[in-house]
């Protein structure tokens, strides 16, 4: 597969002719980006980076000060010293259910992530490396299912959940999403390049069952893709709002995003508590994102360029 | 293929039960692939396909949790929709906010990607900074921006006052609430689209630009005549994704007000979207049949809008 990633674009094969680009000194061709950035570009990038980071930074500022400080003018632009206290207050607040929300979100996102990666790898491996009748039709069917939005079936889905007695139960936000078409597709693309056919043949010759080939040959090779898919999936369900809002309407058993909404409605005046809750829900993901930036981005791009 | 392994069994095998394995192996190879892809289809049948068919059926009935009996009403829900001014209001809001948010968003993303595709020390930092909103949940975005656009103490009004302008009650009128909500959408998604464009730009050979440079084409012309046309498939992809998500807009406008009436999208429904109305009809008014009809029309709208946008983008980017 030829999914573009954040790494360098295709090399020019011939040595770089020292062309003059707007009177600048000739750039050596190392296959890097097209041109050197001018002052306007740098200025624009600084503004864009500032705008991207500022709301998150401001969230931390509000969360680390007193509630009154959120309304002061001129606004405080530096974090205060109350973050720990505010976090403690929101964790201790029994009505806010933020701890419950965090635990639920962990369970939901964790379970979905594990099963999505596992089933995605299993089915992706089958589509990439096994031969069976109807393979292409089934793959096409999976691609088509990815285009159906959840809103379309929301009323019956809600009725199903209510008949199963799963309303206000995290099962309602887990079970329908245990496997994703996107996950299968991502794993298929990766399997094609990461698992050599010879290896599978060799394992067959040695008498391995299909399952053992998957578990002992394919699965280890798929680990990088599994990591990316896992991170994307975890992020997606940690941040999901719509479906939990529908089926976990009762404030007693929320996911973290729902408890943030409840917190905001109930304690609108105590903004430092609301924002402290937001910091708890967001900062772990930001840290993971920074640590695994390259992998996550290439995963997003792989999904995007597949359409 | 299934015969290939057999001749080797006797030589390479030598395990207990080796004699029975050929038939086992054959069965294993035949059945296993289906077992591996089966879970997806089972799950999709229950939670995807079945609700889909059920939606079509329910939209033709007056089913409600409030009434014990359900009767078939034919197209009544749909004719009612045609005269439902609240529904059309939500359609107008959704399409309006979609346009207000998406056009600047994708333009900015193109420009950003073009900037990010330069040689610069620390470009990695800029890429990461611009991508970081992706990890933020819509709920958090809506809360932070909701405070930013607060009437009395919000940062936005503070800045307006600093420049000697009037405060704005952002939630009160249609346009200002649309702009506020569009800014949330754009903050969350511009970087994501920029990275997708960047990936496509990096696949463009540098030779093309060098040739254009020799011919005396300006940077601007190079951008419009090389970069944009070559990015056409990617632009179509992002426009389609933006259409699908944009027409399902829900969380941002919902969180823009707090309290019990949030699903109404403001005092006169000035920022109520289709999905908000759908949930309101389903959860507040308990009219499941009618909600099913709204869901179907919403889906139809997404398909039609995606098709229109597809044709539009193809048109525009090949004219250049």
Can you put this structure into words, describing what you see?
Chain A: This is ABC transporter permease subunit. Chain A: The chain crosses the membrane at residues 40-60, 102-125, 137-161, 173-192, 213-238, 274-293. Chain A: Residues 102-292 form the ABC transmembrane type-1 domain. Chain A: Belongs to the binding-protein-dependent transport system permease family. Chain A: One of its GO terms (biological process) is transmembrane transport. The complex is a heterodimer of chains A (307) and B (320). Chain A has 307 residues and is an all-alpha fold. Chain A has helices at 39-63, 83-92, 98-129, 135-145, 154-164, 171-174, 181-194, 197-205, 210-221, 223-239, 242-247, 256-266, 271-291, 293-306; one strand spanning 35-36. In chain A, α3 (98-129) runs antiparallel to α10 (223-239) and α10 crosses α14 (293-306). Chain A is globular, with a radius of gyration of 24 Å. The two termini of chain A are 14 Å apart. Residues 1-33 of chain A have low confidence and may be disordered. Chain B has helices at residues 6-13, 21-58, 76-83, 85-116, 123-131, 138-148, 155-162, 174-202, 206-214, 219-230, 232-247, 251-256, 274-284, 288-319; one strand at 118-119. The model of chain B is unreliable at 1-15 (pLDDT under 50). Helix content of chain B is 72%, strand content 1%. Chain B is globular, with a radius of gyration of 27 Å. Chain B has 320 residues and is mainly alpha-helical. The interface between A and B is large, with 112 and 111 residues. β1 (35-36) of chain A pairs parallel with β1 (118-119) of chain B.
Radius of gyration of chain B: 27 Å
Uncertain spans of chain A, ≥5 residues at pLDDT below 50? 1-33
Mean pLDDT of chain B: 88
Tally of distinct domains of chain A: 1
Greatest interface and its participating residue counts: A-B, 112 and 111 residues
Strand elements of chain A, count: 1
Task: Summarize the main sheet of chain B.
Answer: none
Give a count of the beta strands of chain B, DSSP E runs of length 2 or more.
Answer: 1
* General shape of chain B: globular
Distance between the termini of chain B: 52 Å
Report the mean per-residue pLDDT of chain A as an integer: 83
Low-confidence stretches of chain B: 1-15
Percentage beta strand of chain B: under 5%
Instruction: Write the CATH architecture name of chain A.
Output: Orthogonal Bundle
């Amino acid at each position: 597969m030829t999914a573009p990633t954040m790494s360098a674009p295709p090399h020019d094969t011939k040595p770089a002719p020292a062309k003059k680009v707007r009177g600048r000194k000739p750039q050596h061709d190392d296959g890097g980006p097209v041109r050197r950035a001018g002052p306007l570009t740098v200025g624009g990038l600084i503004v864009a980076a500032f705008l991207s980071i500022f709301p998150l930074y401001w969230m931390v500022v509000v969360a680390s000060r007193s509630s009154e400080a959120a309304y002061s003018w001129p606004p405080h632009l530096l974090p205060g010293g109350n973050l720990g206290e505010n976090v403690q207050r929101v964790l201790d607040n029994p009505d806010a259910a933020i701890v419950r929300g965090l635990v639920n979100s962990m369970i939901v996102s964790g379970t979905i992530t594990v099963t999505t990666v596992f089933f995605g790898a299993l089915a992706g491996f089958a589509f990439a490396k096994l031969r069976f009748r109807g393979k292409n039709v089934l793959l096409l069917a999976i691609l088509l299912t990815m285009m159906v939005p959840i809103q379309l079936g929301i009323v019956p889905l809600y009725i199903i959940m209510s008949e199963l007695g799963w309303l206000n139960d995290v099962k309602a936000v887990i079970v329908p999403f245990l496997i994703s078409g996107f996950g299968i597709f991502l794993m298929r693309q990766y399997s094609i390049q990461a698992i050599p056919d010879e290896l599978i043949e060799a394992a067959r010759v040695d008498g391995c069952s299909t399952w053992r080939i998957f578990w002992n040959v394919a699965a280890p090779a798929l680990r990088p893709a599994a990591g990316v898919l896992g991170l994307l999936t975890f992020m997606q369900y940690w941040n999901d709002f719509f479906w939990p809002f529908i089926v976990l309407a009762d404030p007693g058993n929320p996911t973290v995003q729902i408890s943030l909404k409840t917190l905001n409605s109930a304690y609108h005046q105590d903004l430092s508590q609301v924002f402290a809750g937001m910091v708890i829900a967001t900062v772990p993901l930001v840290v993971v994102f920074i640590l695994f930036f390259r992998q996550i981005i290439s995963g997003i791009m792989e999904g995007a360029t597949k359409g | 293929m299934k015969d290939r392994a057999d001749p080797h069994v006797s030589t390479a095998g030598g395990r207990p039960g080796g004699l029975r394995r050929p038939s086992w192996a054959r069965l294993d190879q035949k059945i296993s692939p289906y077992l591996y892809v089966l879970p997806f289809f089972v799950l999709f049948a229950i939670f995807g396909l079945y609700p889909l068919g059920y939606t079509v059926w329910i939209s033709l009935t007056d089913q409600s949790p409030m009434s014990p009996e359900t009767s078939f009403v034919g197209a009544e829900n749909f004719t009612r929709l045609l005269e439902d001014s609240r529904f059309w209001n939500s359609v107008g809001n959704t399409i309006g906010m979609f346009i207000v948010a998406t056009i600047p968003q994708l333009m900015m993303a193109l420009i950003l990607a073009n900037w990010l595709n330069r040689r610069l020390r620390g470009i990695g930092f800029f890429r990461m900074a611009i991508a970081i909103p992706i990890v933020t949940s819509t709920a958090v975005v809506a809360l932070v921006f909701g405070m930013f656009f607060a009437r009395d103490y919000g940062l936005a009004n503070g800045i307006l006052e600093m420049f000697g302008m009037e405060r704005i009650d952002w939630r009160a009128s249609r346009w200002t609430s649309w702009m506020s909500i569009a800014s949330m959408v754009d903050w969350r998604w511009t970087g994501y689209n920029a990275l997708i464009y960047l990936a496509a730009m990096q696949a463009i050979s540098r030779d093309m630009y060098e040739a254009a440079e020799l011919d005396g084409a300006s940077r601007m012309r190079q951008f419009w005549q090389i970069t944009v046309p070559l990015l056409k498939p990617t632009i179509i992809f992002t426009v389609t994704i933006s259409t699908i998500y944009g027409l399902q807009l829900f969380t941002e406008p919902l969180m823009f007000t707090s309290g019990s009436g949030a699903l109404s999208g403001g005092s006169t429904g000035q920022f109520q979207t289709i999905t908000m109305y759908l949930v309101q009809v389903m959860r507040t008014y308990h009219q499941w049949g009618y909600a099913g009809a709204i869901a179907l029309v919403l889906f139809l709208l997404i398909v039609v809008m995606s098709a229109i946008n597809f044709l539009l983008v193809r048109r525009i980017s090949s004219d250049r």
